[in-house]
Fold this sequence. Notes:
- Helices cover 43% and strands 18% of the residues.
- It is of the alpha/beta class.
- It has a seven-stranded mixed β-sheet with strand order 2-3-8-9-10-11-12. Strands 1-7-4 form a three-stranded mixed β-sheet, with no helix packed on it.
Amino acid sequence: MILFEEAPAPLLRAGEFDLGGRRVAVRAYAYAGESGPPAYRFDPLDRAFVARQRSGTLLAGPSKAGPWMAAFAKAPPGPALVQGGSGGEPVQGAYRAAAEGAVGSGRGAYLLDPPPAGLPDRPGGAPASPPPELVALYSWSPAGDLDPKRFAAARDRGIPAGVLWPVIPGWTAEPGFVLPFLEEAARSGAEFALAIAPSHDVEFRRGAVDARAGSAGGPEQSEALFDRLYHTPWEEELAESLRSARTAACRAGLASLPPRPAARNEPRANVLAAQRLEEMARDAVNEHRASLLHAAVRWIDACGRDLSAILREGNFARAFPFGRDLARETEDALREAIG
């Protein structure tokens, strides 16, 4: 049995979060707690497995968008991620309220595992025009298959939707897993498949082994994964495993990154330029360059001005605070966005 208690206020956590290459400035918990199916879920921002109880108490956020909107307005600028989908959404309404509050506050949002009842309607059923306000992310779980009905529900509301999964050597990084999974995702209606590098710490290893024990293959497969994660240098293989996963996604007809969501009034060139810089940071050859690119994305999110106008005036390099080389690359991203 799952019990719901009303949270005293919207539950938000601000920070610099990485969603497989996309920046997230604030995460919102529509329902806080780990109760209900599946038994294990993978958190793409913490990059670790989370164990869930069959029964317990969930804190439900406000069921109206207003309190969420006010809370989001106090957070740093940039995309949000709404999480904490629950089977009680048709009654509680917290997930939809959080999603509507994010958009109403002037930011786009990623929706992690949104229940169908938690998806906001698009007025008049009009299709989304890029960049979208909302992007739906459906997580792979050791518990079972993807649900095509969820992708259809997002598509019917004009919300781009795709899958994400952790690339774990000895399990979900292997061709025997990746190819069937991506084929299933494409058949289910996914538009993208986001491969996430798991954390290297002991909490991830312990959670992965426990999750493997509860999936197909049972103890034997769990023991094999234990040996792989604890007794081999698997971390050194992650970069190549991620490249292979992204290549496999493209071959399956899926983008390897989700689109970057944006507010309705956010300058299109700003959004697409930030999106391009995020992609460059993901593929950067060293951490210093990636950090500079991330800083440029934060600056774009916070600037509040249409950068295409500054570019046309010839003043972009004077306004940009991260040096001429990166200014030129950002100008190129803006020109690409302007078309």
